[in-house]
Write a structure and sequence with these properties.
heterodimer; A: about 450 residues; alpha/beta; Four Helix Bundle (Hemerythrin (Met), subunit A); Rossmann fold; 434 Repressor (Amino-terminal Domain); 8-stranded mixed sheet; B: about 325 residues; 2 domains; 13 helices; 8 strands
Amino acid sequence: MFDTLSEKLQGVFSGLRGRGKLTDADIDQAMRAIRLSLLEADVSLPVVKQLTSAISERARGEEVATSLTPDQMVVKIVNEELSRLMGSSSVSLPISPRPPTIVLMAGLQGSGKTTCSAKLARFYQQQGRAPMLIACDVHRPAAAEQLSVLGAQLGIPVHREDGVTDAIGIAQRGIAAAKATVRDMVIVDTAGRTVVDEQMMAELVGVRDAVGPTAVVLVLDAMTGQTAVDVAVAFHEAVQFDGVILTKLDGDARGGAALSVRAVTGRPIFFVGTGEKIDALEAFHPDRMASRILGMGDVLTLIEKAQQNVDIDTAKDLEKKIMGGGMTLEDFLDQLRQIRKMGPVGQLLGMVPGLRNATKGRDLQIDDRQLDRLEAIISSMTPGERRRPEVINGSRRARIAQGSGTSVQEVNQLLAQFKQMRKMMKRIGKGGMPAIPGM
Amino acid sequence: MSEQVDELGRWAELFDLPLGETAPEPEVRRRGIFSRLKESLTKPSQTISPQLAGIFAPGLITQETWDDLEEALIGADCGMDASLALVEELRSEAMQGRIVNRNEIAKGLVAAVTRQMTPEPPKISLDADPTVILVVGVNGSGKTTTVGKLAHRLHQLDQKVVIGAADTFRAAAIDQLAIWADRSDAHLVRQAPGADPGAVAFDAVSSGVSRQADVVLIDTAGRLQTQHNLMEELRKVHAVIAKANSDAPHETLLVVDATTGQNGLSQARLFGQAVPLTGVIVTKLDGSAKGGIAVAINRELGIPVKMIGVGEQLDDLQPFNAQAYAQALFSPEPSPS
């Protein structure tokens, strides 16, 4: 693995640490490292230049505040400049005062438009709206079928016309159908295109003019390289998109494309796609993204996820229990399920400040399937066994292993670990250590 | 018509096959790989050409020239390391007096990239019965389309093809492949959506054996290289194929979108850790893609590029030619056709 941007920047700044003052040479060195990091993160060259010159100017001009060490100051400046470049606050997709709200999806081939259309529909469905999908990709084989399958999974109607090659007509009839069935949110999926294909771009403009969308959204792959700016500019010139959805951000792509597009077109990023699952779509927060890039962790998102998924009262009760050493396997299972509701565990750990850095180079993969097995084992126990694991003898172990499709060794391992954990928790509780939050 | 035969000839060369009497069906668009590649790479003339053209314009070579060149290479997605190395290489040639004016930088650059990316034409031998080709890559890189186009070419070369639809995850991926299989007269091995991809791959290979097919192409679901479970699944698919036929898969090809930036390196590295890669296919080299990531992948990981996709048409998948690629990417000279 190569270093992420945050690791690189931290490397630079740790070199600056422990000095009272920044010399010009220090700043130059830091700027070179920042420049390299940004380029490796696929931020486009003109944007990198703009950013580093702004950062270096501020770093030189600014008095070193007495409360901050030089490296902290540079981190602060970089963070501020990154956030500023990405827009200071999050922007949500506009909703039409006169329904239906019509969203037109545009983008290169393979950027994830169809999946994203479904995710967006799901997002608004959860907000109590009545979405409808229109399949206007008349070029890729089976694209309409893909949208239909996704729509069926979500219980969202899909307008498709097989064998029809006139995307504009499909869009118009789809909108009419949406109005007739009182859908208040219409998402129009279009064919992926290359920016140099004038015919395809003309078709997109035609669809736009025919449906009069509330918003045109550019779907952009987070892994896009230096091309991002050209793509954004070309789409912007053709259809004047209102904002961007950045897809595939759950990989190790560093998403420099987001910075570039925002800087060059001034258009905000509405959402980011963060996983394979249909609900893996999150609002984009520029400040949080900057912190994430800088390795400061994304505590806000983590807290938000916890609040959405964890019941505070139960958590408090549990905390007391755990600290008293009275935790049962039942509690453990509850706990496990609550945490897992927040998303894949590996992803959650990535949001914890410092953890990404601390585990540098080492594999931080927590296999969610491993957790599935734990769940299965505990679920195969009787309630009595969960409360008093001591009673689990050899024959019970064999039964549990068989019931959960695991082996006796795995059951043993779980029980041993649980015993150890309980002992440890009890010790912490007695030792009067600062209370660990329930989760 | 001669270009048409030429094109098929290049495929015959890639697969080490004799070019038979079969004349491909006539099609309207007929240009050589080179002109098309060059055209598609330079059409959005605002991309790298003016920058490079400025560098290659007559004049003295200064420090600024080298800096500009480095930026141009980075701007083409070649990545930091490959760009710096290439500039260093050219600079030392200049010191030895082999490059004396800016014009020669272009030639030197093309030569250096060609040297690095192996001037020998790539080969995919179809000796095995059947030869199994596994196609892997991230979501949206163009695997399914590539498998379809490859099936079409092999069909033109009189090869009997079986396609395994092991992308059982993406909605309608199997339908998309069915349409491609139909177009190229290939037998499609499929199961219900959500089925075990390993089982589909195994069936495809067995079916290839019993049908005495020449080639078995296996399409897999797109996965991000950081998704541990999905990479483990891929490892399993690879192992299952080996169980069906101990030498198989004979080729494991990574499909990389040409618009990909430095993440392409991570893709090649992590996919390579899961399954031994034998080659790379760079897709979507039309549009404004820079395609320099292929240079970076080749330089850092030594995986050869075997094919490129330059457009949406059925015949827009081409065997890789290092010289043509380098020339199309970096040379301001019109192509010698």
